[in-house]
Amino acid sequence: MRPSRSLLTIVAALAACATNPRIVTPVRIIDSSPTPDPRPFHIAGDNPFVLPARAEWPGPNRVRTASGAPGPDYWQQRADYTIAATLDTSAKSVNGSVTIRYTNNSPDTLRFVWMYLEQNLYRPGSHGSAIFPQDSRWGVRGFQGGFDLADVRVNGSSVVPRVDDTRMRLDLPEPLAARGGAATLTMRFSFRVPEHGSDRMARDSTLYLIAQWYPRMAVYDDAHGWNVEPYLGQGEFYLEYGDFDYTVTAPAGYVIAGSGALLNPGEVLTPERHMRLARATTSNIPSAIIPASEAVARPEPGTKTWRFRAENVRDVAWAGAPDFRWDATSANGVLTQAFYQWPKAGPQWESAAAFTQWTIRYYSERFSPYPYPQATSVAGTVGGMEYPMFVMVHYSDTDSTSVFRTIDHEHGHEWFPMTVGSNERRYAWMDEGFNTYINAFSFEAHYPGQSTWERTIQNWQAVVENHTQSPLMTMPDLIDPTALGAIGYRKPAAVLMTLRNQIVGRDVFDAAFREYIRRWAFKHPTPADFFRTIENATGTDLSWFWKGFFYSDDVLDIGVEYMHARAGEPGDTLTEITLRRNTSIVFPVTARLKLADGSLRELRLPVEIWARTDRYVTTVRTPRSVVGIRLWPDGTVPDFNAANDIWGDAPPAEPHRPVTADVGNGGRGTPR
Ligand SMILES: [Zn+2]
């Protein structure tokens, strides 16, 4: 279907006007009674102010409080890993062993545990290979692989794993005690590295991008018990926190970049590179650890073992190549790095260390301090895809802005979900959505005068028009793949920005959002924990907002139905304005009135005007007659039908301004 012009395109075309209009107050309200409603989406008797009882909005308890914070009995499991792996570039495989110290902090005795074996996506007949076309982004491209496991033990005793697609159940020889019982799981593993093209990890000639590479614990939590959704190739990862000590043994000519701190630079780097790295660690100016002149594959006999340690992370990933360029610098003490093959990655990658530095510094100052010692960006054929301290950025980003945006997005994930460990398998909006929301701030700061807002709204509008929309609460695996960018990323970002700019106010929302990060850092928040934290920290009951924008796939469409003059007292005029809500979504109204002398007045109406009706009639008193009206004059309310937002000789919309500014566009939200 041909997309129509968006509201924002239309308002952008209108001339700017200098305004500081006075606010008018309704003098008379006629509340029309509700009428039977033939509209699609609208469910009779479905009060927009009352949230339905949902599994995602359970009653508060001692684990998760009514204020949205972790409760006194909050618990989560812990998984600490020691991994020794070898990259075999002749067999094009990774093999190694893993030891997992698993701590059961739950109140439940466990008699079995579930683990993930994501490499089994590449086994013939896997769930994922049946769902996504072979040659699509998420397809396996005919590659056949999967994990080979050996010597699987629990506390030293052999156990027989029950493998089901990308999951594995281990029956424990002894029950694992509640509240602190620990078990040690060990096994050997190997897999052939998928050929280039696979979206989450791959080999591209001599470049290895390695993730989902060791058997790992599924999450056991108070919301769902074991979280064991099969890995389909496109899905994200919900994982436990812990510490990782891992080694990668690779051909001696290889350079390995990975999650965590490199523990033995003196063993794996030449003295000169080691010295350059030490200097970069304390310099704000990017410099080369391996300059272009040295980024050449040279055969070297033997192997080297690279040692990394990553604390308080959900995962680790790494990459290796014999011909990386390597740039590094510091962002307030965090080592920020870029690894890229040259000249294949393109000249825009010479800015990648600086982009990474910008991102880590910006989000640290704006939202919460980056909690890890380093941040690495690697160019290749994968992604973009995020892992703790480590992101993969696809070569298809061929200009500076797109490389910046991908690095900024992928490292934005260090906050969501690496720091705030929500369940990204079930709630894309708490991961991709929150990340896209913070990306808008970074982008507007990095490119003053530019904004992502219009593209965000247009993308949301496109899935509305082609009927691929689904509610934000939809599990990502069930969202139409062509709509995932809109529903998983852009709509939630626009919705949060709307909540901030139009409803609760910028300062109040920013503080509430930071409080959510503070409360849930290195924990597992649920949707209700977010909703409750925002309501508590802003002092606002937002049931109608969550219901309209998170639980429904309806769109906002409030319009001016009618406006006419009424008889007034001498010296002023009365104008009756009829507003109509055309969908189930309620919203506070901001309107700008133009008077006969050209002056402007503001009309602000709280969301409660829609409590009992979908038609609202009010009368305003003004010194001159009202000649026109415009709803949402600041141009950043996501009302999807612009045609009914103006009446008569409507005043012009405001010029576009950055949507992430701390003040602007009329200041605080509408009164409630
Ligand atoms: Zn993302």
Outline the secondary-structure elements.
Elements: H1 7-13, E1 22-24, E2 26-31, E3 78-88, E4 93-104, E5 110-116, H2 127-131, E6 148-154, E7 157-158, E8 162-164, E9 167-176, E10 181-192, E11 202-204, E12 207-210, E13 216-217, E14 219-221, E15 225-227, E16 242-251, E17 255-258, E18 261-262, H3 265-268, H4 271-280, E19 287-290, E20 303-313, E21 318-321, E22 324-331, E23 334-341, H5 352-366, E24 374-380, E25 385-387, E26 390-394, H6 400-412, H7 432-446, H8 453-465, H9 484-504, H10 506-520, H11 527-538, H12 543-551, E27 558-566, E28 573-581, E29 589-595, E30 600-605, E31 615-622, E32 626-631, E33 646-648
Parallel strand pairs: 1-30, 3-16, 23-24, 24-26
Antiparallel strand pairs: 2-31, 3-4, 4-10, 5-9, 5-13, 6-7, 6-10, 8-9, 11-12, 12-21, 14-15, 16-20, 17-21, 18-20, 19-22, 22-23, 25-26, 27-28, 28-31, 29-30, 29-32, 32-33
The structure holds zinc ion.
Question: What are the defining features of this structure?
Answer:
single chain; 672 residues; alpha+beta; eight-stranded mixed sheet; six-stranded mixed sheet; 12 helices; 33 strands; binds zinc ion
Cα gyration radius (Å): 28 Å
Ligand inventory reads: zinc ion
Helix vs. strand class: alpha+beta
Distance between the termini: 38 Å
**Mean pLDDT over all positions:** 90
Content of β-strand: 25-35%
The total strand number stands at 33
Number of helices: 12
What general form does the structure show? globular
Strand order of the largest sheet: 7-6-10-4-3-16-20-18
Low-pLDDT segments: 1-19, 31-45, 664-672
Helix content estimate: 10-25%
Largest sheet: 8 strands, mixed
